[in-house]
Amino acid sequence: MTKSFSENLGKGGYGSVYKGQLPDSHLVAVKFLNESHGNGEEFMNEVASISRTSHINIVALLGFCFEGSKRALIYDFMPNGSLEKFIGNTASTVVEFGLGWDKLFDIAAGIARGLEYLHQGCNTRILHLDIKPQNILLDKDLNPRISDFGLAKLCPNRSSIVSMMVARGTIGYIAPEVFSRNFGEVSYKSDVYSYGMLVLEMVGGRKNIDPRDVDHTSEIYFPNYIYKQLEMDAERDIDDLVGTMSEDEVVKRNLMIVGLWCIQTNPKDRPSMTKVVEMLEGKLGSLEVPPKPYLYSPPRLAPSISISESL
Predict the structure, then answer these.
(1) Closest CA relative to residue 128, chosen from 106, 112, 109, 108
(2) Closest of 110, 1, 143, 117 to residue 50, by C-alpha
(3) CA-based Rg of the chain, rounded to a whole angstrom?
(4) Protein kinase domain spans which residues (predicted)?
(5) Residue 308 — very low, low, confident or very high, per pLDDT cuts 50/70/90?
(6) Is 132 one of the annotated binding-site residues?
(7) β partners of residue 253
(8) What is the longest distance spanned by two Cα atoms in the chain?
(9) Is the pLDDT confidence value at 104 over 50?
């Protein structure tokens, strides 16, 4: 299928992904898991969760191989790779790859619909628990597909709360309650937080950092910087403000507000993904700025760049 693993598409802690082709010429991506990668829990998670799904914004699992210690998963091939390569440390990355703000907005909305489906549309609620740019794949038309369900949790009886013995996910996108139960229970709202951090990264073109590590970096905690921009806008009449903004600027402002709602520290203050979809599909420029999401916010000087450059 992979012509002796001739074309490597990527490599990570889980193993490697290779481009392949079925007998009917259908292109696929074949993910081989490392033989030493745990006890097979992530493989079973992926098969058990993604096989229950069927949605335009969820990557399609076509099959799997399980032979001794060898485990592989076969997906539809996504020619544009992951969202990670389209967002970087500067907003110019978006321009370099030809992604306009309309398309970026469509991608954010597509991811939201995919998560809403996982939380509300499946017979068994599925928590992804590892939403990040690397796990958002883009098809030939740049439509987003949520992938990599290795850390996913199935919620029996449509329960919302799940138990976790250790923190799971990726630094910079992990909800505060995942690494400390003092912030609340792990639930579908933990995916909402990760989605919010992803959206803010899409808007700002900057890699998210763990707020717990902000003291050890020269970076300002980026959500706080975004909030300061909105605070300055809040001093103006919203109708006057929107009336003087370009369509792209209104889209960016909308995404900023949605992202900040999603990363509220208390899970109960975050919207559901259904509400997020409604916010994105509502009237642009009409969203209310949320309370400041506070985790760790040591005093830092904001970067010396204009709002248009930071966006």
Answers:
(1) 112
(2) 117
(3) 20
(4) 3-295
(5) very low
(6) no
(7) none
(8) 65
(9) yes
Q: What is the pLDDT of residues 11-21, one digit of tens each?
A: 876 778 999 99
Among all chains, which residue has been given the structure tokens 């970096």? Answer: 217
Q: CA 142, CA 13: separation in Å to the nearest integer?
A: 26
Classify residue 95 by burial, with Cβ atoms within 10 Å: 0-12, 13-18, 19+.
exposed
pLDDT of residue 8: 93
Active site residues: 130
Q: What is the 3-state secondary structure (H, E, C) of 39-50?
A: CCHHHHHHHHHH
Query: What rounded mean pLDDT belongs to the chain?
Result: 79
Apex 290 CA angle, 188 and 106, nearest 5: 65
Backbone angles phi, psi at 45, to 5 degrees: -55, -50
The whole model's pTM is what? Answer: 0.82
| DSSP-assigned states of every residue in 206-268 | -----GGGGGGSSS--HHHHHHHHHHHHHTS-HHHHHHHS-HHHHHHHHHHHHHHHHT-SSGG
Which residues are 61's β-sheet partners?
75
Handedness of CA 136, 104, 280, 271 (dihedral sign): positive
Q: Is 90 helix (H, G, I), strand (E, B) or coil?
A: coil
What is the spatial distance between Cα 85 and Cα 77, in angstroms, rounded to a whole number? 16
Distance CA 154, CA 160 (A): 10
CA distances from 202 to 63, 108, 109 (A): 32, 8, 12
